[in-house]
Input
Amino acid sequence: METFRDAGGSEITPHALTEQEWAVVDSVLGKLPPLHRRVLQGHLRRLSFVDLKPGAGNALTSRADPDGKGDAFDITLRASLLHETLTDFLTAKDAGLFEDDGSGYRVRFNAGRADALTYVLLHEATHVVDQVLGLTADADGPVRKALWIGSRDLAEPYASSLAAKTRFRGSSRIPVHQAANYYRALARTPFVSFYATAAASEDLAELAAWRQLSHHGRKLSVTVVDATGRRVFRYEPLKSASVRRRLAMLDALGLFRSDWPDQIR
Ligand SMILES: [Zn+2]
Output
């Protein structure tokens, strides 16, 4: 709760799940890939939900041990995610990158009928998998190769790309009429989203979540429209050849194998 408060949240209170919400959470956890489930069974201390005013963070994965060591983790989620579509979630997330400049331009995602909770739990569970298996800690491993020279430092040409000049990497808000230029730049990178450029761990979490959703037939597009509603730019990250190569890399790594042993340490 303190971390959500530090991120600008207010009116933060623990959320008790209703019977119906328990059923939703059970169902989403039950659909996680086998490795994700095994790792959570062994390493998740607590999964909590909090009520807070929207706009101040969605989810947090943290080590349970306050000194940041140990291999037990807590995942804390904004409770209103339980009732959100992925389309609205992604649209709101990237809206925070842009500022209204009076142009009337808008950015809108379309993730079909996917729910936000499945995506967010895949993303957060991947952070736990990553830390337990040391995937992004491996400077020479396939996740970071040619993309990340540090856990947060991008290699060229991506470090100089407009795709890396968003609030997710500390830049200021972008006048929204420039949005198409930024998504065009993103389309020339192997990153599935702007958020994936924030750190190697976010890159992996975003990729793994989208690998699983696309495996189940989910589609994703982002559209920039002008004040008259005319489409200025449209991009489908899951159809990008360089993104698809990286989704295949996760399968080559074995992250989505169905035959993980019972014990993962
Ligand atoms: Zn994350």
Remarks:
- The first helix runs from residue 2 to 6.
- Residues 59 and 120 are 7 Å apart (CA to CA).
- The helical segments are 2-6, 19-30, 34-43, 86-95, 116-133, 179-187, 200-215, 241-253.
